[in-house]
Specification:
The protein has a 7-stranded mixed β-sheet, sandwiched between helices. The protein is 39% helix and 22% strand. It has helices spanning 24-46, 64-75, 88-101, 127-131, 149-158, 189-207, 218-224, 245-262, 268-277; strands at 54-58, 79-85, 113-119, 134-140, 160-176, 228-239, 294-304. It has one domain (20-304): 3-Layer(aba) Sandwich (Rossmann fold). With 306 residues, it is of the alpha/beta class. One of its GO terms (molecular function) is methyltransferase activity. InterPro entries: Methyltransf_12 (IPR013217), SAM-dependent_MTases_sf (IPR029063). Keywords: Methyltransferase, Transferase. One of its GO terms (biological process) is methylation. Residues 56-166 form the Methyltransferase type domain.
């Protein structure tokens, strides 16, 4: 569930070298396909909170989880949702989507959820100064793009109100979307793409200025930061074949992303297969195939502040 974090005429890049504004359409696709799974996660996270809580969505991306959180808050009487991102286009999209969802009607009444956007660079600004303290801090796939991941989690913990929760969505299982044998190229391309992307990710981390390794799992980080009731749960996003067109479109964008960031790490024969899969004139084109699917699992790590 990739929700992520400057923008000028030439499209500035964040510290990880990724131009997030160029990924806007892709993240909107993800929001659409992950919507039901996110609703379940949001309801689970909001359930134990006090009345009319403040919820902080850090690295809100295009707002898929923001919409789910607004709906969950509305259904139980309202609250405040603070959206934080470092890319203006992303923040605008998330704010628009969340405010539209804030008119969501529960069974009994139309509840009020206040949506407040905050443009911030999380590598230099403290979440507690932006919006804390919050009864729930949600951060999905954003910490691993910051130089010192442990320090970033510590900053998120700072923004949690006493007795409140930090929900850190990191890790899970690599998304699958290609059959084992596509009928073109060598079978097993999906696994080789995942390997190349993992290699790219390691290089991306190494090239972030001031990068610090995270020596262990997220649960140990939360425990080291004195969080209580540290646990985790995973959720599934499952769109089986034959796919709706939105899944085909997502797969084309996902493979394009793989090619752009990690294509140079593939064998030339695999690069040729990828080229064919992305060519609308080729019979193997992903956008027309009926054997494309989307299957992924996200993991949410939880800790409660004393």
């Amino acid at each position: 569930m990739p929700a992520h974090p400057h923008h000028n005429h030439h499209r500035a890049r964040t510290q990880d070298g990724i131009d997030w504004s160029s990924r806007l359409a892709f993240f909107r696709q993800v929001d659409e396909l992950d919507a039901e799974a996110r609703r379940v996660v949001a309801r689970r996270l909001v359930r134990p909170l006090s009345d009319r809580p403040t919820v902080l969505d850090v690295g809100c991306g295009t707002g898929g989880m923001a919409v789910a959180l607004v709906e969950a808050l509305s259904a139980r009487g309202g609250g405040t949702l603070v959206l934080v991102d470092g890319t203006p286009e992303m923040l605008d999209a998330a704010t628009t989507a969340a405010r539209a969802a804030a008119t969501y009607e529960s069974d009994t009444t139309t509840a009020s959820v206040r949506v407040r956007p905050v443009l911030a660079d999380l590598s230099t600004e403290r979440p507690v100064d932006l919006a804390g303290p919050a009864q729930l801090v949600w951060a999905s796939n954003v910490v691993h793009h910051l130089p010192d991941q442990r320090a970033a989690v510590a900053g998120l913990v700072e923004a949690v109100a006493p007795g409140g929760w930090l929900a850190l969505a990191e890790g899970g299982l690599d998304g699958k979307f290609l059959p084992w044998d596509l009928g073109v190229g060598e079978p097993g391309l999906s696994d080789r793409l995942s390997g190349a992307r993992a290699h790219w990710f390691a290089l991306m981390r190494e090239n972030i200025e001031g990068a610090v390794r995270l020596p262990g799992g997220w649960n140990t980080v939360l425990a080291d930061l004195a969080m209580l009731d540290v646990t985790a749960f995973s959720y599934l996003v499952d769109h089986p074949a034959p796919p709706q067109q939105a899944v085909r479109d997502w797969a084309v964008n996902q493979l394009t992303w793989h090619r752009d960031v990690a294509g140079h790490l593939l064998h030339p024969s695999d690069r040729e297969t990828v080229r064919r899969l992305l060519d609308p004139q080729d019979p193997a084109y992903l956008g027309l195939r009926d054997d494309i699917f989307l299957l992924t699992a996200g993991t949410v790590h939880l800790g409660r502040k004393p």
